[in-house]
């Protein structure tokens, strides 16, 4: 497809982003071209926007931002035979090599040669996006475009929550960004008897209650450990889903976790963290599980099943829908934390 399109790009290695007109990308033999219907803003996009240390080390401008989307296939490469023009798709944003030890042994989520849409290649904050056909996920035509665009982060919540048994368990979620918020309902759908949340931001703490949190703790004003011990009879929670990457929150969650409990970590710290290795891990006999991305493609099928069954309702998460031209407003909302999920409409 010839022509130009609007795209939000990181043009220089500095804070900010620009809406520019660039050429529509041409799909290679194994690629597809998708007209974007909706694209949602991730915390990663906010990091790139403010240009934090992670972004400085990872991003090579100029580059189109964004990796969560839904859209319609408008062109396919000559070697693509399982995707056709008109298909309604989203995408697994982790592009894996398929050849390394991890990929060949069922662990492509931790591929040794991983590339990420909008991080290592041009993304989807644009009218069109090019992706490998193998990364396309066909959506049910009845799935709203904004909901379809957040299946990728929902997959993160699903992978994190389902990394351990939650049936009959009490759960503490530390950090109520969009993925932490999504994990509340996932945990309950998986059998958790109670889900507690810890979040400093008032907007997101209130949103956690709307999503089903049984107790929303403000760690700036309340003692998280004491509050958790009150509601668990002094035992502590069975499972922590750590979504914040915050050093203080991580330490609080370890102390709120019962002996023999499980901590599943998705949040990424800005730097190194410190905690009491002996008392909070070794002597408590806890299990720590690290999670990245989604299981390919197991998590996607679980996401579809949860949405189709009505076991979860993600609609309260989508708090803002803005035209692509208002990308700065959307990114500022994410940086400030005064939103759930922000969806941009090209």
Please tell me about this protein's structure:
Strands 3, 5, 6, 9, 10, 17 and 18 form a 7-stranded mixed β-sheet that branches. The chain is globular. The mean pLDDT is 97. The longest helix is centred in the middle third of the chain and has 12 residues. It contains 12 helices and 18 strands. With 346 residues, it is of the alpha/beta class. Strand 14, helix 9 and strand 15 form a beta-alpha-beta unit. It folds into 2 domains: 179 residues, Quinone Oxidoreductase, Chain A, domain 1 (Alpha-Beta Complex), CATH 3.90.180.10; 134 residues, Rossmann fold, CATH 3.40.50.720.
Outline:
The protein is of the alpha/beta class and 346 residues long. 29% of the residues lie in helices and 27% in strands.
- The appropriate CATH architecture of the largest domain is Alpha-Beta Complex
Total of DSSP H or I helical runs spanning 4+ residues = 12
How much of the residues is beta strand, in percent?
25-35%
Number of strands: 18
CATH homologous superfamily annotation of the largest domain: Medium-chain alcohol dehydrogenases, catalytic domain
